[in-house]
Amino acid sequence: MKKNIGYTDKWIRIVLGIVLLALIFVIQSDWRWLGLIGIIPLATALINFCPLYTLFGISTNKDANKTK
Predict the structure, then answer these.
(1) Where are the beta strands (DSSP E) in 1-68?
(2) Residue 31 contacts residue 20 (beta carbons within 8 Å)
């Protein structure tokens, strides 16, 4: 697993994950459990790897782009 998530992308994913997880506490209807989707961007940010980026050949990691 090569790192394919850059610094800015990582922080965007962290913020997005926290916002989505916050929906669990903010929304009072049954739709609030959709906030659990926030686990995905948080997990990918913490491991610096996105499987979808690999499928599409994308990398936002500047260090990995320099070695090509």
Answers:
(1) none
(2) no
What's the 3-state SS for 4-67? CCCHHHHHHHHHHHHHHHHHHHHCCCHHHHHHHHHHHHHHHHHHCCCHHHHHHCCCCCHHHHHC
Tokens encoding 17: 């994950």
Predicted structure pTM score = 0.86
**Residue 24, CB half-sphere, CA atoms under 13 Å: how many?**
11
pLDDT at residue 63 in the model: 82
For residue 68, count other CB atoms closer than 10 A to its CB.
5
